[in-house]
Amino acid sequence: MNTKIKVKVSHLIKTFGDNQVLKGINLEVHDNEVVVVIGPSGSGKSTFLRNLNRLEAPTSGAIVIDDMDIADPKTNINKVRENIGMVFQHFNLFSNLSVSENIMLAPVELQKKTKAEAAKQAKDLLAMVGLESKYDATVQSLSGGQQQRVAIARALAMNPDVMLFDEPTSALDPEMVGDVLEVMKQLAKQGMTMIVVTHEMGFAKEVADRVVFVDDGNIQEQGTPDEIFNHPKDPRLQNFLNKVLNV
Amino acid sequence: MRRPWIKILSSLIALLALFTALQLTAAPAKATTTYQIATDSTFPPFEFANSQNKYVGIDIDLLHAIAKDQGFKVNIKPTSFNAATQGVQSGQMDGVIAGMSITKEREATFDFSKAYFMSGVVMAAKPNGKITKLSQLRGKRVAVKTGTSGAQYAQSIHKKYGFKIVTFDESNDMYQDVLTGNSAACFEDSPVMKYAIRQGTKLKIYTKPALSGPYGFAVKKGHNQKLLRMFNNGLADLKANGEYARITKHYLGAKGSSDTTSDRTFLGLLKQNKGALLNGFEETIWLTIVAIFFATLFGVIVGLMGVVPSKFFNGVSTTLIYIFRGLPLLVLALFIYTGIPSLTGQKIPAFIAGIVTLTFNEGAYIAAFVKGGIHAVDDGQMEAARSLGLPFGKAMRRVILPQGIRIMIPSFINQFIITLKDTSILSIIGIIELTQTGKIIIARNLEGFKVWTIVAIIYLIVITLLTWLSNWVQRRVRL
Ligand SMILES: Nc1ncnc2c1ncn2[C@@H]1O[C@H](COP(=O)(O)OP(=O)(O)OP(=O)(O)O)[C@@H](O)[C@H]1O
Ligand SMILES: [Mg+2]
């Protein structure tokens, strides 16, 4: 494995009011690594991910991505975000724009690409996620699975180094889940650095380089999929796996 | 990270402030010999609009004759009696001639000319003879017009005779109250009452003129003394050369100026007042368009201030909305028109005061739904845009506003219609828009019901057209 550290989180604390949600998280993610984050509901997984691109401002601690400190208010966060793609549970496609416009908006606005260049790129990305025919479609006409694939294409349009996924398949009908996971596997194969929050244990076993178990605002245990799924040590992890694998 | 956005906002606010300031100072510079004189819009036979929509009457004709005699110019601004006197007190106006009785109380704040007319208060009631004496008023309601000597007289004797006073802003409303039987009688200056009866008002005068008092031309105490001197000199000249007698006889003589003979059907009234109604209608439309423009500008800016990531601007937005939505439009209009000039000494033309009033009031409502419309857009949209690296302003412009505006369109249309209706309230500061035109016509011909029907129909037609137009726009905008 490549040893270059892409993301380094040190003692990250996040409090909402007097509710401490993240209680001092430390994590290093290497270049090309796929890290899957699992944990019970309310344990702070989304909050952790949202701190990584400052959709939530950290209360204290440091987050360094590509040598830039996200937690430092002086950092130009918009520039950093261009390098961090994010995919949301509820897709959040821009409902006033068509499929292709969704993908082209940021490259045209931020990378000063011409309309033609951006359009070409949008076509390629749509082909990659298997939706070339939806180029001119409205967002409202797509199924959930299709919307999520467009959302992935939209995030990729800025050529990010790191991709964050927050439960990308939890809002989908079961028959749609496979298509989306397929696109994510493809990305992983291409060497994208990914941090994925998911309840899809199959995906974690197959794709993850490392699985991180979060509970109660902290990382309780981490390791390879084999270590986590076949030899869990922490009783809370054992308990959690019992629940999710036996439903 | 949010600097550019804030910069744009602050410069827009600065622009708006500058614009307002310019408007204030741009009040036309007067040639030294033209005086702004306030008068009552509806006090025949002293001042009223004739069927050509020109102001005539004893006061108006006297003032013009005196101005000619003394070589100065006047610009006569008809408004309500209260607005007229307040206009002089706030320095908006140089003088007031409005059948104004010279009283001790008023002499505390006004300097009066020599009396130019002697009047007295009479009691008028229905001609059926049920109420013929003051003593029969016990337990009854008596109608008066605010600020008149009739009102003062009523005040001084209501304990003694045991009646209840109800006040009106317009003479016609006061007469109507007696005619419908709500009030048993009214107190009115005798020449006014005589004129109204000659115009066809079915009331009868039962008492001798009481509290007989002089009418005077007035300026603010200690101000415009030269104007006052010229008025006195001119008055003396007119009395000497017979002009004074000619004018008063024209309005009070046996064959006074009167248009009772004219056609009083709906169509007749519409024909006679076509010009006046058209002018009032134009003023209403003009007020509406200009007010909508500035209210939208103000509302959108204040609304956006409510959603930018800045506690300070959020607070300013909330406060502005709270204040201007909380104030009744009427109070705001009077405050801006008469209140601000008495603080700053700067005159504001009524039209500008009206626009400012509507801008703040309607703008506050617009700000509230602009804010609401933006908040109604799913938070995920902003997060997705920001996560791509789009700055707040760009995300707002390209993603949030296009969705928010679609949500706001019905509210905008609704607000435009409300603005049109609210212009009628500006009649209080003397803007001669459609409603004020109605009042003025009624002051002359006392055909309240028919004229208000005509005015109401005009409003309904415009609102119907506006609704059609906006439905059409709405259909075009929908995806
Ligand atoms: N904006 C916020 N304000 C206040 N509390 C918040 C906010 N966002 C999250 N929380 C709280 O933080 C805790 C962790 O929430 P978070 O969404 O990170 O959990 P999660 O692990 O992603 O759960 P799930 O699996 O249900 O998505 C919860 O108790 C939640 O109520
Ligand atoms: Mg979550």
From TrEMBL, chain A:
TM region positions: none
GO molecular function: ABC-type amino acid transporter activity; ATP binding; ATP hydrolysis activity
Alphabetized UniProt keyword annotations: ATP-binding, Nucleotide-binding, Transport
InterPro entries hit by this protein: AAA+_ATPase, ABC_ATPase_HisP-typ, ABC_transporter-like_ATP-bd, ABC_transporter-like_CS, MetN_ABC_transporter-like, P-loop_NTPase
Domain of life: Bacteria
Coiled coil: none
SUPFAM superfamilies assigned to the protein according to its UniProt record, in alphabetical order: P-loop containing nucleoside triphosphate hydrolases
Pfam hit, one: ABC_tran
Record-annotated ABC transporter domain positions: 7-241
Stated name of the protein: Glutamine ABC transporter ATP-binding protein
Source organism (scientific name): Secundilactobacillus mixtipabuli
Automatic annotation (TrEMBL), chain B:
SUPFAM superfamilies from the UniProt entry: MetI-like, Periplasmic binding protein-like II
Topological type in the membrane: Multi-pass membrane protein
Principal localisation: membrane
Alphabetic keyword roster: Cell membrane, Membrane, Signal, Transmembrane, Transmembrane helix, Transport
PROSITE patterns on file: ABC_TM1
Molecular function as annotated in GO: ligand-gated monoatomic ion channel activity
One annotated Gene Ontology cellular component of this protein: ATP-binding cassette (ABC) transporter complex
Record field: transmembrane: 285-308, 320-340, 451-473
Domain of life: Bacteria
Gene Ontology biological process: amino acid transport
Gene3D superfamilies: MetI-like, Periplasmic binding protein-like II
Listed Pfam families: BPD_transp_1, SBP_bac_3
Cellular location(s): Cell membrane
Protein name, UniProt field: Glutamine ABC transporter substrate-binding and permease protein
